[in-house]
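Recap from last week: sequence in, structure out.
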Amino acid sequence: MSKTDQTPQAPGHRPIPGLAQESPPLASRIIAVGAGKGGVGKSTVAVNLAVALARKGRAVGLLDADIYGPSLPTLLGLDSMEQTVLAGKLQPHAVHGIKAITIGKLVDPDKALIWRGPMAHGAFNQLVGQTDWGELDDLVIDLPPGTGDIALTMAQTLKLTGAVVVCTPQRVAQDDAVRAARMFGQLGIEVLGVVENMSYFVGDDGKEYDIFGKGGAEQMAGRLGVPFLGAIPINTALRTNSDEGDPTRNFDPATAGGEALPRALEAMGDAIDREAATAAVRAGQAKPTLRVT
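Predicted structure tokens:
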């Protein structure tokens, strides 16, 4: 036996057995949601964007590409659901009007994923290409924070319609968000715009508090020359609904702590829908339509 034969395999991602080899999913639009740093609510924005688009009557898939810190099992309430494989394909979870897939349902939830770049690359490609998405209008991809391997793999694997950058109002978050926007530009991915998350806090008394400042992300979007896609507030209801895995409650004033959160989420969904439609036409992914009223 040669030395090469004796070399142990490095621990990490192993291809999920029994899956068919398929090409990447076909969706009319593929929208990545990214951020320059963690902790700005990128996954929360991605989940609520997917639900907002589905509420508009679109067939939406949501891919949790945050390989090292998947949040979808909690945010979508997937803890009690088992990941299934049918006819050689991963079956996405049908919840809250969308189809979702996450690495969090394929690994031990309490175990850290200590993977090198190629391992994460392999996991991403399996989640994308070996999932039975069906026919999708939109595929929303929740990226890991920062400017690492997964974003590069995504750019090489998929033809994206565009990317949404999530930021909070304070300067330190803006600096990292600018780097994320520049990364997308270098990868040839159009930046659809910027969402300001945790824009303000809504107290139980209905009063608004600018905990992290005000308008920073909108000003940053102006400097970058990209659209500002909306300001998402934070309140106790959003935290509760996220912890309980029920984002649909964020769209009902009775369970969202008032009108502010549903209004902001609907406005964000409309803005991203509009920008993605325009970007898809520019990229040749769609034809312009004329609506007569």
